[in-house]
Amino acid sequence: MAFKYTKRRWHKITTVALLVLASSILVLAFLVNRYWSPVLANKVKEVVSKSSNGLYTINFSSAELHVIRGSIVFFNITFKPDTAIYNREKKLHLAPNNLVELHVKRLTLSHIHPFMLYFHHKLDIDEITLNNPELNVSYQLNHTKDTVLKDNRTAWQKISKSLRSVHIGSILLGDVKFKYEDYSGNKVAISELKEMDLSARDLLIDSATQTDRSRLLYCKDIIAHLNNYTGKTSSGLYTYKIKSLSLSTLKSQLNVTGLTLKPVGTEKFFNNSPNERFSLRLDSVQLNNFDFLNYHKYRVLSASSMVLNSGAIQIFANPIKHDDSSNKVKTFPNVALYKINSDMKIDTILVHRINVMYSEFNIKSKEIGTISFNNTSGSVLNVTTNKTALQKNNISTAQLTSYFMNRGKLNVSFLFNLTDTENTFRYKGSLGPMDLRFVNPAVMPLAMVKITSGTLKQFSFDIQANRANDQGKVELLYNDVKVSILKPDTNFNNLRKKPIASMFANLFIIKHSNPDFEGGLPRSAYVVYTRKKEIPFFKSMWQTLFSGIKSCVGFDKKTQQTVIEMKNQQIIKKQNRKIKKEERMRKRIERHKKRDLKKLLKSKEISS
Predict the structure, then answer these.
(1) What secondary structure does DSSP assign to 275-312, as a single string?
(2) pLDDT tens across 331-361, in order?
(3) What span, in angstroms and rounded, lies between the C-alpha atoms of 587 and 237?
């Protein structure tokens, strides 16, 4: 009996204790929810207003506190700028270049520490989650460097009277709808992004981090992920796609995978543009030591290196003569760099396994010739438009290794002057042994010549160039070259051999080897090519080198003049033969007329 009594009494005590504890928690939750939620809301609003000098305000419709789960949920949050303050600061040249507006239907603060806020004046939250946020950013260049404000205190100094510190473990934004408006150009450029995720780690504002340069917006790391982005250039002639993009401010690294630039159809493009037609595909692009904050604020692109991995670049020369008075010097790399219209400084660009193809349509042959540089790798140094950097070094250099027509190994170096008004540059290189018949896909359509046999031993060149001309030395060493001269075949829509001209070329024009005999001195060509303003960069290089190649194989200016004179003589002989034939026909007709007349007169005499 005593045992049962004790047991029942224990049950009663336990039940009462649990009821008291539950009631206390509910009362405490009610009081905290009623008292602390407004305190937190006011603190957040105060922090936002003070840290932005009143430029930004934050509001929400309601909040729910869950004590057991240690979280609070805000609904219908709006974070936006005060346009009156922005316009006032803009007149004083103090307004920021970027304005941000954020709308969130639901924001969750997880693992909050209310007593630390109340008793120690420290705002400490483990995680903030924003569901389906809408983020709008507008950019307008109000100043190009940090301005000195009247109130130049740090964010911590501005809030230190009410808060000792602000700490947020992580901030997560999933499936962000991002809209970006750029007002820096002649017209507003609008970009809209989907499938974008943003996160920030270890946001800390206190006395130690107020001057910490390793943090961006007081965060240890900000990470952005973007998937499947597609856009169009302002001209509408190109579409660019990105499979994925990721940015880490802690690593100062930007990674892009699956980058493509695709032009519209050939006919539409060339009818609407006088420029060359480009297409680009890159498996990955990596930007290292990328200063994101400087780019975000002032559009200054600064990085230690850019790595381009595996892809292809195709260039097609425009075959249509447009009424275009512009000078194609803009296609020179040291000129095109400034067309990006950005303050840029990249110390090194590393290229790995890129295929480069240049194609051109020959009106005479009615065919397309293509020159390819396969598996191109190398480095480009000092790619910059930054005025300070250019004062220290105004020369950009490139060292590239490639395989010409996927056969001969080509080593080439470039040197570009980035500040010279004549846009001077230099290119030199050497091409190793290869079967010359592999060059036919280029020389048959473009030069209407087919190489039937021949072995290249070495091709070397050293050319100084500028916006007006290219000049330098070209040397081509080869053995046993034979060619066929071609002409268009209108019946079969292709090229066919000109037997007599081919025989003449092989017998009297082409030098079959260089040097002519073993141990002899090789022939070299000193070329001077004057560039017309409508000739772009790649075409001017090709025509310069090709003129040197023709001289090395014996088809120099003197030979060309001889061939022209022979052709003229053939034309004159043909014309003379035609004249003599017409004269003979005229005399024959006259004889027939006289004979017919005699017959007619004789017949009249007989009849009379």
Answers:
(1) SPEEEEEEEEEEEES--HHHHHHH-EEEEEEEEEEEEE
(2) 899 999 988 878 899 999 999 999 999 998 8
(3) 66
What is the CB neighbour count within 10 angstroms for residue 554? 18
Question: Of all residues in the chain, what percent are helix, strand and coil, respectively (each to 5)?
Answer: 30, 45, 25
Give the pLDDT of residue 604.
60
pLDDT tens for 288-318 read 999 888 887 788 899 999 999 999 999 998 8
- In this structure, the answer to whether residues 486 and 407 fall within a common structural domain is yes
Task: Report strand pairing: 134-139 vs 165-182.
Answer: parallel
State residue 561's pLDDT score.
Answer: 60
Whether the bond into 515 is cis, omega within 30 of 0: yes
State whether 545 and 573 are in the same domain: no
**Same domain, yes or no: 451 and 505:** yes
For the chain, count helices (H), then strands (E): 12, 23
Identity of residue 509: I
User: Per the confidence metrics, is the pTM higher than 0.85?
Assistant: no
Q: How many domains does the chain have?
A: 3
User: What pLDDT shows up at residue 422?
Assistant: 93
Give the residue ranges of DSSP H helices in 369-439.
387-392
Domain that holds residue 571: 565-608
Q: Is residue 201 part of a domain?
A: no
Q: Are 411 and 398 contacting, i.e. CB atoms less than 8 angstroms apart?
A: no
